[in-house]
Amino acid sequence: MKWILTVGLVVWWANTNAQDDQREKVRQAQEQRALEQQRTNQLWLDSAARIMERGDYALADKEFRNMLASFKSVPSELAFYFGKNSYYMGQYKQSIDWLSKYIQLKGASGSFSAEAADFLKKSETALVSARKEQTRNAIEVFSRDFFIDCGPTGKVICPVCAGTTVIIRKGYLGQNSYKTCGYCHQRGTLTCDEYNKLIRGQLQPEKTP
Ligand SMILES: [Zn+2]
């Protein structure tokens, strides 16, 4: 009886081990595929950026839009390039949207933060003067329709309270009132999912007393 039990246990153990092995192999294969996909995406992004740099903005626009349609989540670099190229395409609202997104994601420390701020300003100025004669038919695409990749930390400084966890409101008489930010649970940051919900207007604020 004891012997049967032992054999049974060994068989069960071998079986579970084989299943674990199988699962591990599947996981590794998925990881490998994801890495390759990332590498391909990066090459595509780099080549489109070069197209933009040599001044072929219409072609670059096409490439960036194709990327937006096919990437699972939008890397911050793409947000920057598309925002910059949109300025050259005269699509200022779209440019402002994507450059702001890049700045939100990267703060002041991103590789393109200074350039993003520069083009953001240019687009804002251009938008004011272009508003009257804007007759363009091109369809603009905005970041809220895409899943934004928040980078390896998976976190973003809460854009509502700028990471302070407090929202300051000016009263009529100039006195300030302070309210706890309802979005970031007093952390000052949002998870990537929360951030993506926020930019779609789908993140419900916590009820604060
Ligand atoms: Zn907040």
Textual characterization of the structure:
This protein is mainly alpha-helical. Helices cover 57% and strands 8% of the residues. The chain is built from six helices and four strands. It has helices spanning 2-53, 57-70, 76-88, 92-106, 113-130, 192-199; strands spanning 155-157, 166-170, 176-180, 189-191. Strand 2 and strand 3 form a beta hairpin. Helix 1 runs antiparallel to helix 2, helix 3 runs antiparallel to helix 4 and helix 3 (76-88) runs parallel beside helix 5. The longest helix is centred in the first third of the chain and has 52 residues, at 2-53. The protein is flat, with a radius of gyration of 24 Å. It starts with a helix and ends in a 10-residue tail after the last helix. Bound molecules: zinc ion. The site of zinc ion (ZN) has 7 residues, from loops.
Q: How are the elements arranged and paired?
A:
Blueprint lengths: L1 H52 L3 H14 L5 H13 L3 H15 L6 H18 L24 E3 L8 E5 L5 E5 L8 E3 H8 L10
Antiparallel strand pairs: 1-4, 2-3
The structure holds zinc ion (ZN).
User: Structural class given helices, strands, pairing?
Assistant: mainly alpha
Q: N-to-C terminal Cα separation, in Å?
A: 66 Å
Any idea of the CATH class of the largest domain? Answer: Mainly Alpha
| Gross morphology | flat
Sheet with most strands: strand arrangement: 1-4
SSE order: HHHHHEEEEH
Helix content: 55-70%
Tell me which ligands are bound: zinc ion
Residue share in β-strands:
5-15%
Q: Kindly state the mean pLDDT as a whole number?
A: 90
Low-confidence stretches: none
CATH superfamily of the largest domain: Tetratricopeptide repeat domain
Task: Kindly identify the CATH topology of the largest domain.
Answer: Serine Threonine Protein Phosphatase 5, Tetratricopeptide repeat
Q: Major sheet, described briefly? A: 2 strands, antiparallel
For the CA atoms, what is the radius of gyration?
24 Å
Q: Give the count of helical stretches.
A: 6
Give the number of DSSP strands. Answer: 4
The CATH architecture assignment of the largest domain turns out to be Alpha Horseshoe
Overall domain count = 2
